[in-house]
Amino acid sequence: MTAMTRARADEPPGATAVVDGEHPAKLSFDDFYHAHFRNVTTQLGAYTGDLSQAQDLAQEAFCRALARWDRLARYDDPVAWVRQVAWNLARSRWRRLRTARNHLLRQRRTEAAMAGPTPDRVAIDAALARLPANHRRAVILHYLADLSVNEIASQEGVAEGTVKSWLHRGRLALAGLLDENIEGVGNV
Predict the structure, then answer these.
(1) CB < 8 Å & 24+ apart, contacts of 41-50
(2) Model's pTM, two decimal places?
């Protein structure tokens, strides 16, 4: 017996559907990858501040997902697994970079100067960097990844009220930090 799968308007691309009361229809990895790569990359780009590094991290997370795809395809939300792996890779990258930087400082080497980003980008990145990690993740996931409070709470393993608190505090801190930067620009 051959089962046909039809996409439903109310299901996300990663959802599996039971057809004719039998086994769940299997989502192809290619479809999954094309549906979610850009979104994961955007989140990582905002978190790391480096688009090319974000693309590398997202690619690595999807490669790890491919190796486990038979199992991941049965998850309710396989993109959450990929997103968590990507965030973990980003954290590991920061630890490695911090260790390398400390080594270089001990060796008393200076880093080469690089052309900087626009002033607006610097202000936003600096403001995000000054937020606590939980507030920064909540703001990025909510406003750049378009995740709901419930989805963020599920991913982070905390109550919805905690996520709401993080978002509220993150927005207040960003508003204060960005207003502070705007006032300083007028005095130049």
Answers:
(1) 42/144, 42/145, 43/83, 43/86, 43/140, 43/141, 43/144, 43/145, 44/86, 44/87, 44/90, 46/128, 46/140, 46/144, 47/87, 47/90, 47/136, 47/137, 47/140, 48/90, 48/93, 49/125, 49/129
(2) 0.47
